[in-house]
Amino acid sequence: MLFEIKSSPLVTYPLRVKLAASHTEPGDQGPVEMEQHKLIDVDYHAQSLGLYLANRDVEIPLGLPKGKAWPYPQLTTFISRADGLLDYLEAWGEIFLGYRVPKVDRTGREKIMGYLANGWGDEIDSNKTKAGLGRTDDIKKGTYQLLKFGAYYRDGSPKLPIRGVLATNLDPLFLYADYMEKLVDARWAPASKFHAADGKAGYRQILERDLFYIYDSILAFNRPVTNDSLLADCFDFDALATALKRGRLTTLLKSWN
Predict the structure, then answer these.
(1) What's the count of helices (H) and strands (E) in the chain, helices before strands?
(2) Domain extent listing, the chain
């Protein structure tokens, strides 16, 4: 199975630490407080850190950065509480809703949310920071890779269940209708697989098994697509959980062959 991965984080939240006192630097008349947004050195190993959900003014306490599992136990503890999970989802959701609006159409707080969407807020921001398939270049490159992979390898391996998957955290959102919607269920085949249709001038025929989807699957957080039945089984997590509970995992895995 080929995975063509196009992904970058939608949200970048800062870690913050509460300092005992303001940082100062020498001035003409003695020490002065440092300006904001200035690089400084902090001994973070000796500080209790927090993941700051800036748009909701909520901090997830992470404690001292110690142990191999840090910070996952602290994050798990936070979201295991109903109010903690709600805070996190509301913070992420607001940024997502702001990001899905095309940059030129954003107003008010939507513009502010753009700065938390991996730095993509200002007019001069590089489009290379856009999350998921938010760039037309990423859509085009991913689509070509899947077509090339299928043309060179899939047809030559009829007994091997090769599939092509485009994996991303987000689909193109506001670019979806213009750049992907009509390709999602598009299928292709080499010219050699088409044959003259008996008694039907101007028609060609092909076996169903010789038609391939461009995207056997698009694995995305917000709008996943699965065209291939084998992959539909592979990503049926409810069926997987049931098989694990009933001791039938081996039977399930064999069914994918």
Answers:
(1) 8, 13
(2) 12-129, 136-227
For strands 15-17 and 49-53, give the pairing. Answer: antiparallel
106 in Cβ contact with 121 (< 8 Å): no
| pLDDT tens digits along 19-66 | 778 888 888 888 888 877 777 787 888 889 999 999 999 999 999 999
3-state secondary structure 152-217: HHHCCCCCCCCCEEEECCCCCHHHHHHHCHHHCCCEECCHHHCEECCCCCCCEECCHHHCEECCCE
Element (H, E) at 250: helix 249-254
Band of pLDDT at residue 213, cut at 50, 70 and 90? very high
- Side chain identity, residue 203: Y
Is the entire prediction scored with pTM above 0.85? no
Give me the amino acid identity at 148.
K
Please report, for residues 185, 230, 233, 236, 249, the alpha-carbon distance to residue 254 in angstroms, rounded to integers and kept in the order given.
28, 12, 12, 15, 9
Are 121 and 99 contacting, i.e. CB atoms less than 8 angstroms apart?
A: no
* DSSP letter, residue 35: P
